[in-house]
Task: structure prediction
Amino acid sequence: MENKPKRGSFTGQLGFVLAAAGSAVGVGNLWRFPYLAAKDGGGLFIIIYLILVVTFGFTLLTSDITIGRKTGKSAIGAYTEMNPKWKFLGVLTFFVPVIIMTYYAVIGGWIAKYMVAYLTGEGGAAAKDGYFTSFISDPVQSSVYAVIFMVVTAVIIYRGVEKGIESCSRFMMPILLVLIIFVAVYSLFIHHGDRNGLQGFMVYITPDVKGLTVKKFMAVLLDAMSQLFFSLSVSMGIMITYGSYVKKDVDLNKSISQIEIFDTGVALLAGMAIIPAIYVFSGLSGMNAGPGLMFISLPKVFASMGVFGNVVGAAFFIMAVFATLTSCISVLEAITANCMEVFHTDRHKTTLVLGIIYTIASVIISLGYSVFYCKIPLPNGTVGQLLDLMDYVSNSFMMPFISFLSTILIGWIVRPQWIIGEVESSGVRFHRKQLYIIMVKFVCPVIMIMLFLQSTGLLAKL
Result:
């Protein structure tokens, strides 16, 4: 009889929720959500996003977590057990974190660099023009920070589910929540000239519908849907893996709601922390910083705060490091769990091999801004470097396609009752059962294929 590596498990509902929320709460919440909200009409984007969370987010999150718990396996094994002919979907899902892991530690290294700068009192330097560009184009500095971040991630995975992932999440998530509340509240009370934080908060939450057209509304909708993927860690096998560690007596209904609330709450607080501050010190023009908001615009805002700027900056980037680390852990864990199942290896050996592979990959991607610099045209009309290519393939191309296939499998082949039965197996009633059935059978497949066509540039050609 073949010896299979022993699977770990979360100690209970709290451990699972904190770990899953830690996976969901990442760079997407602290960086991507605020700049998309600023770009897409403030409150308009928020309203659309909240509707998507309780419909699409709920559906995709429920599917992934329940698939994991019912099968007790990670993506490849789980989809194979659901329907052997659909093993290919498990393989596709497995490759999403495989690709994401090549660059996630690089972004983590960038954030860690800023955290160190603020903790050592060098926040003023971080606010100067060219600081970020100078750092990422330095082959030594950028590589060292990426390697450190990668090694820390691997060490936590090496320690296992309970001692590594859960212990880390139990420590970091409460601190992250306290820090983001502190920064968000502080942002409400700052003022500069004739502008103050409360005015910035109103800019953040007030729906801007001026010049709104059907085309613009669809663009906001697709931005919000893309953010949902990025934020909730769905359609990449992570929640399937985490679900496989959940004990049978855990109330999935309650857990999924708690994960939704935690993740969305942090995203809203991040916007509340960042957008009022940007508005106060940079006005409406500063709201258009886009992806450079975290690394270029925010340090300038912190520098404008005077003596408290370094403290607030340090708090923000510590929080960002924690959020990025918990997400990076979940990405590597999804890969590790699949490899353990496929190759029947133990956790320690698997983590060591993957740690070496991804340390090398992280260095290569970090050098994409210096030694290996090149301009790569992407199908969505943008031009990027190695990191942008990996991000596009995983997030914009593969994830919508995987979600489409997954909803077809659940909605029309194994049927929704396969999921519903597992949710209710612990003796609880599935409160949103009818919504789940309608979403997974009819709504999700249509929207997912539209998102896929949009991200590949094909929708514009139709």
